[in-house]
Each structure stands twice: as structure tokens, then as C-alpha cells.
Design brief:
Layout: H1 31-46, E1 58-63, H2 69-80, E2 84-89, H3 102-111, E3 116-121, H4 126-133, E4 137-143, H5 149-162, E5 178-182, H6 189-197, E6 204-208, E7 223-225, H7 229-233, E8 238-241, H8 258-265, H9 269-272, E9 280-282, H10 295-298, H11 305-323
Parallel strand pairs: 1-2, 1-3, 3-4, 5-6, 5-8, 6-7, 8-9
Helix pairs in contact: 1-5, 1-11, 2-11, 5-6, 5-11
The chain binds N-carbamoyl-L-aspartate.
Length: 335
């Protein structure tokens, strides 16, 4: 059967994919590719408007889950590179309301000549499904309890900046830094991408979280489970807090109320005092203030939470350029 959009199929009917590269998970990026993306993102922050890079290309943000930062930063990133951007969301205005599957919708958009699908969905492994079916390139913007690779890249850039490190140092770029990632590790796709990325850049990574929300047996090699939250934070250079992903918890699962959770697992001023004197505090957002993080910490002098957001735009520009095989049109990587 010939699909509409046959320009992406060879004469034999075999599907041809558009030039460029997918980004489904952080493991698909070798360290030198990570460092090149981070260096180029850094250079883009000095001059963020590059409308020649993706002029004539079309990016669709195909979002089946809510989003504030990720969606907006991808859209901004695409526009700053000159691409046309379309948002396609689960908002009741599409033919999903008539029973069309998300995959059929994606294949139809693909047939219109989309270059990149930026995809977020509650289904883990959804980007890989799209890669299999689409001619467009696919960038993962968060899949279920899977990964969120561009958030991890933004986080790495934030740590590099805070400690005066260079992405040019590759596997040693974060050497000597201890990163504590705390909260709902099991359901946290940001954690999953960071647990795979930060050790490859040389960081020592330790996790802590409530019973049932962290599994010591499932951690990547080199990542350790701390016996308590305080133990994780002691001496840490980076304390990264995560929200409990209530929407992904089994119904009826018992969790302490917000005040009890905060007392046991919330980052407050006392706990920040256990960290390295130069420690920074991070959170990918959305924050639940007074639950996993105290107001005074979220808004305090150690917080780099809004820097993460700023870096997210630059990183997504570099990723979109790579997705379209236009990385070479970006400014040279900055040390
Ligand atoms: C996260 C996500 O959606 O995975 N947020 C983000 O994209 N910056 C984290 C979360 O929802 O807790």
C-alpha cells in the first residue's frame, strides 16, 4: 500500500527517512556528540537568533501530555532557527475525539511533510514507535516513565556553567562533582536521562527517595543509592529535586500527606546546609512548593532552577538542528 507522502518512500515502497538524527534516549548520544551539542548550545546563548538554520523546515510539537517549559522552549527554539512550528495536542479539538489513534494522526501529519516530530506522551517507548512509522525525525520530549533527554542536556549545561566547567573536557567535564538526585526516581524520566548522562561526563551520582519510588537494583552502573536523604545531600555539589509523579502512581497507593512528605523528603535550608558550601539546587519543574522543596530554597541564592529553563531553549535549538542534519550551520561549539 502506498501512503500519502510517498516522497518518503523509495520505488520499492521501502520507507526513506528524512536526513538528520532522532533523539529517543540519551544513550543514543555518544559523549562526544553530547559535548558538541552542549558547546553549540553555549555558543547559541550569545546569539540566539539564527533564522537561516532551519528556514523552510517544519517542526510539529506532538504532545499527548501537559507541558509548560518543554513545549514552549521547543517552540521558541524552532522559531529562533527559522522553522515553521505547529502544535498538535491532546486538547479535544482533533480527530482523537472521533476515535482516531495518535499513531494514525502522526502518520497523517507526516504525510504533509513534517521534518521533525517533537513528541511527548504517557506511553513509554512512544518515540521509538514513531521512528518506526514516520519519515520525519523524532525528538523525545518525555515518554511516560522512560526518558527526557533534552532536559538532561539542559541540566548538564546548567552544572557546567555553575562550576566553570567546559563541555570540551568530555568524559571529565564533571569530574569531582557529586550530584544528588532525590525524590520519585522510579517514575521520573528526567532522573532516568540524568542517571545515564551525568556519570558519562564524570560526575559521581547518588540517589535517594521514598521506599517504592527508588529501586537500588535498577540503577545504572556507577550510580549509588544513599541510605537516607541527608546522606545523599552531605557534600553534594548539586542537589536535584524531583516531584512525585502522582499521575503515574498506582491508584490507591499510600503516600504521606504533603507536610509529612516535606519533613522527610523535602529540601529545606537545613538540608542545603549539609551540602558543599558552593552547592547548587536544581529542579526540572513543575515544582510542588512545600512538598519536595521549600520556598526559601527554590527562590534562594543556591537555586539554578530558572537557569535550567534558560539553557533548555539553547539545548533544544542544538538538538533540532541536529535532527535536521543542520548542526554544521550552527556556530562552532564554545568551550
Ligand atoms: C518533567 C517532565 O514532564 O518529565 N518536567 C519537564 O519536562 N521539565 C518533570 C515532571 O513532570 O515532574
Amino acid at each position: 500500500m502506498t501512503r500519502a507522502g510517498a516522497e518518503f518512500e523509495s520505488e520499492g515502497g521501502e520507507r526513506r527517512r528524512r536526513p538528520g538524527r532522532d533523539l529517543c534516549g540519551i544513550g543514543g548520544l555518544p559523549v562526544d556528540a553530547v559535548c558538541d551539542l552542549l558547546g553549540r548550545a553555549r555558543a547559541l546563548e550569545d546569539a540566539p537568533h539564527r533564522p537561516e538554520v532551519l528556514r523552510g523546515r517544519t517542526v510539529v510539537c506532538f504532545f499527548g501530555e501537559p507541558s509548560t517549559r518543554t513545549r514552549t522552549s521547543f517552540e521558541l527554539a524552532a522559531r529562533r532557527l527559522g522553522a515553521d512550528v505547529i502544535f498538535f495536542g491532546n486538547d479535544g479539538t482533533t480527530s482523537a475525539a472521533k476515535g482516531e489513534s495518535a499513531l494514525d494522526a502522526a502518520r497523517n501529519l507526516d504525510a504533509m511533510g513534517i521534518d521533525v516530530f517533537v513528541a511527548r506522551d504517557r506511553q513509554t517507548g512512544w518515540p521509538q514507535v514513531l521512528c518506526h512509522h514516520l519519515g520525519a525525525r523524532v525528538v523525545n520530549a518525555g515518554d511516560g516513565v522512560g526518558e527526557h533527554p533534552t532536559q538532561a542536556l539542559a541540566d548538564a549545561l546548567t552544572i557546567l556553567e555553575a562550576f566553570g566547567r567546559s563541555p570540551a573536557d568530555g568524559a571529565r567535564a564533571l569530574a569531582g562533582l557529586r550530584v544528588a538526585i532525590c525524590g520519585d526516581i522510579i517514575h521520573g524520566r528526567v532522573a532516568h536521562s540524568n542517571l545515564h548522562l551525568l556519570p558519562r561526563l564524570g560526575a559521581e551520582v547518588v540517589v535517594a527517595g521514598p521506599e517504592g519510588l527508588v529501586d537500588g537494583a535498577e540503577l545504572p552502573e556507577g550510580v549509588t543509592l544513599a541510605p537516607s536523604f541527608d546522606d545523599a545531600v552531605v557534600g553534594a555539589h548539586v542537589v536535584m529535586m524531583l516531584r512525585i509523579q502522582r499521575e503515574r502512581l498506582a491508584r490507591g497507593r499510600d503516600l504521606p500527606d504533603d507536610a509529612a512528605y516535606h519533613a522527610r523528603w523535602g529540601l529545606d535550608a537545613r538540608r542545603v546546609g549539609l551540602a558543599d558550601p558552593h552547592a547548587i539546587v536544581m529542579h526540572p519543574g513543575p515544582m510542588n512548593r512545600g512538598v519536595e522543596i521549600a520556598d526559601a530554597v527554590a527562590d534562594g541564592p543556591r537555586s539554578r532552577i530558572l537557569r535550567q529553563v534558560t539553557h533548555g531553549v539553547a539545548v533544544r535549538m542544538a538538538v533540532l538542528a541536529r535532527a535536521c542534519d543542520r548542526q554544521g550551520a550552527l556556530p562552532e561549539a564554545k568551550r
